[in-house]
Amino acid sequence: MKNTSTEFSYSFPVIRGIQAGREYYTTMCPLKLVPRLFKFVEDDLPADLRAQRTLNKQRIPSLARYIIDNKKSYAFSALTVSIDGEVYFEAASNDPIGKKLGVLSIPMEARFLINDGQHRRAAIEEALQACPELADETISVVFFVDSGLKRSQQMFADLNRYAVRTTRSLGILYDHRDPLAELARMLADTVPVFIGMTEKEKTTISNRSRKLFTLSSIYQATKQLLQKGKNTKFSKQEEKLAIEFWTEISNNIPDWLLCKQKKVSAYELRADYVHAHGIALSALATAGSTLITTHPEGWKKHLAALKDLDWSRHNREIWEGRALIGGRLSKAKTNVTLTSNLLKQTLSLPLEPSEEEIETHYAPGKK
Residue ranges of the domains in the chain? Predict the structure, then answer.
């Protein structure tokens, strides 16, 4: 790029690259400079005059807390920034490698437009207020030279066009900070009926899959069973209880064991039975939590009543309006509660006042 005529400029050590026939530059920027250089000033502009979505301020505290709580292990991807102005790149030398390394000078009157990373930028600013010691840490920044809004808008569209959010199961599989995720992984590899029967990557199970459970459903159900929140540590006793509970549950749902033994297919169970879906795991956990509280010493023997429960989806008198809406499984919170209510009634357990209220509203609709 040609030399800038301004007397005052920012200078960044960069690596120069070529993409789509255009030069771009990658640098490492100290966190303390991120809020000063890359300001978000487009909140009040109409959508067609902005280069990105408006800032969702509700996301900022959780992102900032992520940095603060994980100062030794947080990881942020690069900010992508367009420079609206003339820049000058001075190569380190004339050899092939030296031509790609150098210093990028950007006039101070140039505008920076964040194409990707405005929420990270805001989170960094908030985190620095709580942890000033992070000031000299760095984040990578990719600079594109762009003298117009149209290309910046197109870059935003392109950068987000193929972005795919990871599934809940995959997030749990790779999350080594959340103790509950660690417990769910351990259960999937320890409870006999879960071993080899748990889909660890996807949140939904395809028709042809031989899996019967998802890692995300085990995670959510165990959270309900132990009445613990995310990022809450578990005692060895609680871990043992979770293993014993799910093992004992499987002993009282014979179809699960038949599927494990390959005597019946997972597809058949999903097509014909409520217990082959995540709503059943959640309901079993909710009922199980009450059972263990009510009968802390003899809870296992009470689970035998589950063997007499007709889990067939064709039994509309039992399941329609509870786990099923119009013959289809429903994951709505009310339906999970109504399903757990039925399990509690099967196990001769009392309902909570909020559960009683939901049950009361369900009964008239059943007639």
Answer: 9-161, 168-366
